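no rush on this but wanted to send it before i forget. what follows is a protein written twice so to speak, once as letters and once as structure tokens for the fold. mainly i need to know what kind of three dimensional shape the backbone takes. thanks a lot i owe you, the record is right below.
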Amino acid sequence: MSKADKTLINEEIVNLTDRVRLVDTDGEPKIVDSNKALEIAYNKGLDLVLVAPNANPPVAKVMDYGKYKYEQEKKKKEAKKKQVKIEVKEIKFTSKIQENDINYKVKHIKDFLEKGKHVKLRVFLRGRELATPEKGFEVINKVWDMISDIAEKQNEPKLEGNYINLLVTPIKKKTKK
């Protein structure tokens, strides 16, 4: 078995089963002895590759395995390029933060949201502040009120350990059809 992708090829198929449904280069499937299928592949200078191991009998195809693997890798790379990587920025507050500090941090939050980044708002509670988390919720709600016109809540603010967390994302623009 090829270690990277677990695809059975050539002699590995012969060791697995005695009959296969062979899909030749002409595309017509036929049931043949696995040794005969391997011989057909070798005569054409190609490989015998197991494409459907769970079928009855298993389906094997005559193809250039190196070219097949190359194309699979190429497809993976293309898919990876098209993936969108979401960046999450974290902004921390305390429950005793001053108004001007909140305004300064909200300005940064708005910049991040306009750039399409997700923002995690965290209010850190320490010591006795844990006994009264309402102050932290007040801070996070005040910040939310300041950014609610350009952001969406992903969840409600909740207390997790020493932090009150809220994840906000940019508002999705409606596409015109």
